Amino acid sequence: MALLFQPIQFGSLKLSNKIVIAPMCQYSATEQGEVTYWHEQQWANYALSGAGLCIVEATAVQDEGRISYADLGLWNDTQRDQIKALLTKIKTLSPMPFAVQLAHAGRKSSTDKPWNGKGQFKPEETHGWQTVSASDLPFNPTDHPPHALSKDEIRQVIQDFANAAKRAVDAGFDLIEVHAAHGYLLHQFMSPLSNQRQDEYGGSFENRIRLTLEVFQAMKNAVPEGYPIGVRISATDWMEGQDSWDIESSIGLSKALEQLGAVYIHVSSGGLHAQQKIELQPGYQVPFAEAIKKTVNIPVIAVGLITEAMQAEGILHYQQADAIALARAMLYDPRWPWHAAAELGENIQIAPQYLRCQPHGLKALFRAF
Question: Which terms in the Gene Ontology molecular function aspect does this entry carry (predicted)?
């Protein structure tokens, strides 16, 4: 049996295969951070894809933690209730589990929708607000400087992550992913390029990862015992020659998260500094996942320009990762898992309404839920 189509366990949650739909911001929520019809059709599409798990887009734990004014939120009960109603409908389509990525954008918030090309709004502009971070260093020189969080404000961020985690459970999500990657708030505290604090949240490696660990622990305390929480990280800042976040730092963080009970590490990279230099090529982030996998005993998810079935299977075969996350490839081809199953000679569970589209002569390719 192809490794890609064997089940995998993320803590208490069992997936039917090792294909994960990575979180992708849709910038299609209301200005109150609530779901719209776009999310209904998009999540339904994910549910029918045949993947083992879907992680929906970065969902803010605070109003000012959104990347843009059109991002989802879980900072209030109305948002929770609307998501719960939508998930209840989606789960009638497929047994595939759904997860949510909880996030705070920090200094990279207060932006326009990316296709409008505006970039960041200033606090006084419509759709803009005062951003926050570890220190008052902007992401771009032209950005409005963020406010450096006080200790009381840090405690509020931690509490809001925990509150959002409880709402995520109540809404019906099967797993939570903590967003500690891509230059957003938790990553801003971890990297010395964005964190110049002199208190217990800055300076040493142990101090810089403190907020991420405290957020994780607070969320774990807020959800039922055994409920699975994973973490997405940026393995490197891609700022060679500077004192920055790197793979050695990520290995140390991953070990600490494993000890606290994380059920997986989802390994991405970059997003912290505007001058990062990334050498894009197929599977360019896989070596980072492989390096972390060698040091932890929990599953490691690889992501980043993984587009072909044999490529994904090879990553698993050579034990570079335990599961494969797809983002843009799933947007381009929402039936990617079907086509991967056909290429690898495996069968895949699909909705019975689709059984008639099974290719002629491939009687074992599809089976109903």
Answer: FMN binding; NADP binding; NADPH dehydrogenase activity
CA 192, 194, 198: angle at the middle one, nearest 5?
65
Cα-trace Rg, the chain:
20
Please state, rounded to an integer, the average pLDDT across all residues of the chain: 96
Write the DSSP string, 289-352: HHHHHTT-SS-EEEESS---HHHHHHHHHTTS-SEEEESHHHHH-TTHHHHHHHHHT--EEE-G
Tokens representing residue 4 in the block:
């890609």
Structure-block tokens of residue 223: 């959800």
**CA 21 to each of CA 13, 86, 306, 316: distance values in angstroms, whole numbers, following the listed order:** 16, 18, 12, 16
CATH of span 3-368? 3.20.20.70
DSSP tag of 51: -
Average pLDDT over residues 306-332: 97
Distance CA 369, CA 135 (A): 50
Structure tokens at 193: 């390029």
Give the pLDDT band (50/70/90) at residue 1: confident
Q: Is 46 a catalytic residue?
A: no
Burial letters 197-220, b for 16+ CB under 10 A, else e: beeebbeeeebbbbbbbbbbebbb
20: phi then psi, degrees, rounded to nearest 5? -120, 130
Query: In sequence order, what DSSP letters do the residues of 222-273 get, joined into one string?
Result: HS-TT--EEEEEES----TTSS---HHHHHHHHHHHHHHT-S-EEEE---S-
Share of the chain above pLDDT 90, in %: 92
Largest CA distance in the chain: 67
> pLDDT tens for residues 264-304?
999 999 999 999 999 899 999 999 999 999 999 999 999 99
Give 214's contacts (C-beta < 8 A, 6+ positions apart).
Answer: 158
pLDDT in tens, 141-154: 999 999 999 999 99
CA distances from 245 to 146, 192, 248 (A): 20, 7, 8
Using CA atoms, how far apart are residues 239 and 243, in angstroms rounded to an integer?
A: 8
Catalytic residue among 27, 46, 69, 184: 184
Note the pTM of the prediction, 2 decimals: 0.96
Distance, in Å, from the CA atom of 336 to the CA atom of 8, rounded to the nearest integer, reads 19
Total length of the chain: 369
